[in-house]
Design brief:
alpha/beta, five-stranded mixed β-sheet, binds 5'-O-[(R)-(carboxyoxy)(hydroxy)phosphoryl]adenosine, 10 helices, Nucleotidyltransferase, domain 5, binds zinc ion, 343 residues, 19% strand
């Protein structure tokens, strides 16, 4: 079964064609990063406008790269939430129009379920149950993927997401946007033991995390140094920050594996591109004899191939959108597809 998917939840306009949830036939991602860079973050209004301008071209290219017409596609999947509402609406409305005009089924997909499904493309043999560490710009979760469409959140960040902490810490150090990538690069040249940061733990909730304390700690360190005219070793600040955040994420995942007896682990979301996180996950999983799915870098950030992958399994579970499908800014990963809009 071939699914054409559309993703527009944040600052990437993306479309892809994927067969049976695993085999990518085409994938097109148009990133708006360059345009948002001067503002130091995503400007929702600009994001929506650019999606409107680009979506037709991106979807057409995904079909032409796949050497297919819309008639050769079996169904259409679209990110229905969570994300920036104006941005999501562009993809949802475009997909609704296309589904109606072509007579294809429309499948609503949860953005984070899509990130997790990137692992089905990366690791063709991977099947639930497994645990997934989700670390993106908006979410930090430990998820028990019980089946393709039945997910349980075992742990979460109580405040900022890991990616948000990376971006805000990077911004306070005057690094470029998006901050996570820049911080990752600088951390490679730093001494991780030089600066200490508070651990992101939550009393009484071993799988939950809190990243606002460490973010504030970096901001204060930078502010106090500049007030005193002191020079900080920025690569070492990056290395210490990165170590604290990555240790918190990895330790939660392995703790969850111990608690549940899970033997297969995976990782998803933009932060899973982080050099240190990937290396630590690989070595720790090996040490413990656990299987690990680590998506390649192009599948860690936002793309539509992952939406098509999850769309396939949502379709098999009978999650088809009604004609009044709407986008939703917040949506629980456990609930998945917005039920009110499904047949
Ligand atoms: O999953 P994603 O592309 O978008 C959301 O759904 O939020 O994640 C974006 C986040 C940003 O916060 C970005 O700074 C972070 O992923 N990120 C990284 C790296 N690459 C992207 N964080 C740390 N190290 C990286 N190499
Ligand atoms: Zn994302």
């Amino acid at each position: 079964m071939r699914i054409l998917a559309i993703e527009s939840s944040c600052d990437e306009t993306a479309a892809a064609v994927v067969e049976d949830g695993r085999k990518v036939i085409s994938s097109v991602v148009h990133s708006q990063i360059a345009e948002h860079r001067i503002y130091g973050g995503v400007v929702p209004e600009i994001a929506s406008r650019r999606h409107v301008e680009k979506i037709d071209e991106v979807v057409s290219r995904a079909l032409s790269d796949a050497e297919m017409t819309i008639n050769e596609v079996d169904a259409i999947a679209v990110t229905a939430g969570p994300g920036l509402i104006g941005a999501l609406l562009v993809g949802v409305n475009f997909a609704k129009g296309l589904a109606l005009a072509s007579g294809k089924s429309l499948i609503p997909v949860h953005h984070i379920r899509g990130h997790i499904a990137a692992n089905y493309i990366a690791s063709p043999e991977l099947e639930p149950p497994f645990l997934c560490l989700v670390a993106s710009g908006g979410h930090s979760l430990i998820v028990d993927v019980k089946s393709y469409t039945e997910l349980k959140v075992l742990g979460r960040s109580r405040d900022d997401a890991a990616g948000e902490a990376f971006d805000k810490a990077a911004r306070s150090m005057g690094l470029g946007y998006p901050g996570g990538v820049e911080l990752d690069k600088l951390a490679r040249q730093g001494d991780e033991t030089k600066y200490k940061f508070p651990k992101p733990h939550v009393d009484g909730a071993p799988l939950d995390m809190s990243f606002s304390g460490i973010k504030t700690s970096v901001v204060n360190l930078i502010h106090n140094a500049s007030q005193k005219g002191e020079q900080l070793d920025i690569p070492s600040v990056c290395a210490g920050f990165e170590k604290t955040v990555c240790d918190a994420l990895t330790s939660r995942l392995f703790e969850a594996a111990e608690m549940t007896g899970a033997k297969t682990l995976s990782v998803a979301g933009g932060v899973s591109a982080n050099t240190r996180l990937r290396a630590t996950l690989e070595s720790e999983a090996k040490k413990r004899g656990l299987k690990l799915s680590l998506p390649p870098l192009w599948l860690t950030g936002d793309n539509a191939a992952m939406i098509a992958a999850q769309g396939y399994f949502e379709y098999l579970a009978g999650h088809i959108a009604k004609s009044d499908l709407n986008a939703v800014a917040t949506l629980s990963v456990e609930k998945g597809a917005p039920e009110d809009f499904c047949v």
